[in-house]
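dude i think i finally got it to work??
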Amino acid sequence: MSAVTTTRSPAVPVEARRAPFTGLRHTLLLTARHLRAARRVPMFVLMNLLQPMIWLLLFGQLFRSVVNIPGFSAGGSYLEFLTPGIVMMMALSGSAWAGTAYIQDMDRGVMDRLLTSPTSRGALMVSTLVYQSVLTVLQTVVVLGVAWLGGARFGGGAGGILLLLLGAALLTAAFSALSNAAALLTRDQTVLIGLSQLLTIPLMFLSSALMDTRLSAGWVATVARFNPFEWAVVVGREALSRHADAGTVLVHLGLLAGLAVVLTGVATRAFRTYQRNT
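look at this
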């Protein structure tokens, strides 16, 4: 009678079992760090909330008559047309400054300490994207509330608002990653500010955020089709409309998601360049 033997699997170290969750844990901890820093400077949060209010009320009054121009076929009031554009302008301008947090960490030596620790590089990057997206979502809720008080009504309902928030979050993630990459490569806040202004203003005006591109020069409408900011505006405007084109929303969300993934990968690789040159 042969003895029955059992083969036991080699013991898996506890740290190895936890490895799949290490990046997630680091992301949560670093995101909480960013949120605590924002809470210590309430004026920063307040200014980020006031700026879109000024845009919404100022542009809403300056251009409210454009809906009467022949060819402006968006329908409804200009405030309803403008609101998705303001949400995306707010998301773009906020994310363009994301890299300043990295510059501050470099100047204080915090970045070097993080990079010499076992902290996940992906978590370092993703945590800033999550933090910026949280700010964008909060600001968007306030903008929608002010627009509603101003008389704007959105037929897309709760589902449309969620799609708008998703589009704004993806736009924020993509351009926050780009800003972080620029910060790691240039290490200079002045250069980062210049690049942000150079990029954001043309993207905003080469889109339908403020004006129906069918009333603009033909080349503006052509360029807008390849403009990631315009993709987000299209998502927001379609999502809030009563008869949204689901295909258009999904295609543009897919483009934004793809761009966010690519730029996050590029920005994460920028850590290597930063460390080689340190």
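The CA atoms of residues 67 and 78 lie 6 Å apart.
im so relieved honestly
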